[in-house]
């Protein structure tokens, strides 16, 4: 069982660990700090004004993120009975350092 | 100034009401399902592009923190939810303030029933209008506006102006942008200047219930203040062209 665990692709382990950490709120994204900022109140959200100020950028960015997720989703494949048995036989100790 | 009750030629392109809360109320997670069960007729649920961005990233970015991620399409209105805010917007043609106000109060009452935790930081009303004019000079001449920067007297130029005026507990953000191009519902292409009046009232309600209980008179005064600011932005000739109807 230990040998099987060691030969698993490391990116899968990392992805699982990161997802689990995010779910338990242990994963912290860095706080965004801009070197300069304007000290003004931000206005009410309006789709019309958003479309005037950034007609392409936000939708384009969101579309790119969707494509990344879709790419991951389409390339998923089952690990196989042997890998799954190894993972689920001792799930609790999987994330221990 | 006597304000028109209605305009025969409505220049409105967007009318919204927004509530922003403090803490971590997780509104986009809690409210769409709850309101879906309470609203009649049943709204359509739409997932918006910002929902694809992970919540921790949205929460850390001031440009994304109040961007809606889920929308309910409900009759003459849409209700959009961010992590800490919700926005009620009118579809066009504008259903008039009495109907809009009724929808605001109804939806706020429903949100109150859900029991969202956390303080209400602010609520706001924003009306965006497109004052039509074929040229920049025509657009600027229709607005009660004088802009001079150095030796440049802006009378036939592209300009974007935003003024933040605080009056008591209300902040009015008045924006004028010339050179806008829009497509009307009937497919007609129009040119004009955008006049956007955003009236934001800061609050100190520790919970949503207290806010909801006092909203009815407060939202009316906010709307009237917003309306006054808008009509003060226009010349008398511009108001006359819109076909005003008074009481």
Which helices and strands, and how do they pair?
The complex is a heterodimer of chains A (97) and B (247).
Chain A: H1 2-6, H2 10-23, H3 47-53, H4 57-74, H5 81-89
Chain B: E1 6-7, E2 12-21, H1 27-38, E3 44-47, H2 55-60, E4 70-74, E5 77-81, E6 85-90, H3 97-114, E7 120-132, H4 136-141, E8 148-149, E9 152-153, E10 160-167, E11 170-183, E12 189-205, H5 208-213, H6 215-232, H7 236-241, E13 244-245
Antiparallel strand pairs in B: 1-13, 2-6, 2-7, 3-4, 4-5, 5-6, 7-12, 8-9, 10-11, 11-12
Helix pairs in contact in B: 1-3
Description:
The complex is a heterodimer of chains A (97) and B (247). Chain A is mainly alpha-helical and 97 residues long. Chain A has one domain (1-28, 56-97). Chain A has helices at 2-6, 10-23, 47-53, 57-74, 81-89. Chain B has helices at residues 27-38, 55-60, 97-114, 136-141, 208-213, 215-232, 236-241; strands at 6-7, 12-21, 44-47, 70-74, 77-81, 85-90, 120-132, 148-149, 152-153, 160-167, 170-183, 189-205, 244-245. The relative contact order of chain B is 0.19. The model of chain B has no long low-confidence stretch (mean pLDDT 93). Chain B is an alpha+beta fold and 247 residues long. The chains are: A mainly alpha (97), B alpha+beta (247).
**Roughly what is the average pLDDT of chain B, rounded to an integer?**
93
Termini separation of chain A comes to: 17 Å
Number of helices of chain A: 5
Radius of gyration of chain B, CA atoms, in whole angstroms: 19 Å
Backbone structural class of chain A:
mainly alpha
Largest interface: A-B, 26 and 36 residues
Given the helix and strand composition of chain B, which structural class is it? Answer: alpha+beta
- How many discrete structural domains of chain A? 1
pLDDT < 50 stretches of chain B: none
Number of beta-strand segments of chain A: 0
Nutshell version of this structure?
The complex is a heterodimer of chains A (97) and B (247). Chain A is mostly helical and 97 residues long.
